[in-house]
What we know:
The chain is an alpha+beta fold. 41% of the residues lie in helices and 27% in strands. It has helices spanning 2-49, 158-167, 180-192, 211-226, 231-243, and strands at 51-54, 57-61, 65-71, 84-91, 95-104, 107-116, 121-131, 135-142, 176-178.
Amino acid sequence: MNYFNTTKNQIQKVELEKLPIVLDYMRQGMALVNERMEKLQAYVTKQKDYLIVETPVQWAQSLNHVFVELRYAHRHDAPGCSNADDEQIELTEDTLSLSVLCMEVNTKVKYMIKINLWDKIDVNKSSYEYQAVGRQHFTLAKLNAPARWRTLYQEVNETQQALDKITRNSGKPFQIRLWLQRHEKHVQQLWEFEGDAIDDYEGHQWMEEKNEEYEDYIHKKSLSKKGPIPLKKKKKNKSKKSKK
């Protein structure tokens, strides 16, 4: 019995000696929880001021320029916000960033985006211009020209891609697509260019697997201006040109 009591007393002594350490860890943990709660509260409060939305992006390129359209809207096919305020635009040699505050049906929406560009641009020769119905058009002069960009945004390696999945952060804009109306004007010169090895640039499919889709697009576009054009005849004429 004495042996048991002695052992019990020793255990209690050890526990009492470690108690200050345990309490210290608990205090540190509580301080960390409080700090994170304060940050979360600040974030929630900020979100109440306005809703943050990443702007849709469409782009095209020539051998010397990159053309970008940013729309103040939730998606590509939605009307843009015309009641814009606090517009901030910044161009550097390798980034394009924009933020604008809009009032939509009694709700403040802040449209924001920052794009790390695929290659460098000449800022002094680049420009942007506001268009109707909440659209901003950019004409970016390629620093290394003539050349083709594989895409608009900076690509990342496999390691960074894995990290992006964890952090939910990516260099690729959430809503990005090819600007067809601009792309069609330069697709031929991009296709014929031999000054680089970037043959898989975005939109090259129009001159390969989707050649028929491209012809259909041109055909439908010309109907309203010139009236119906026999599609078979158009394809035949195009095939003759390609043989030359």
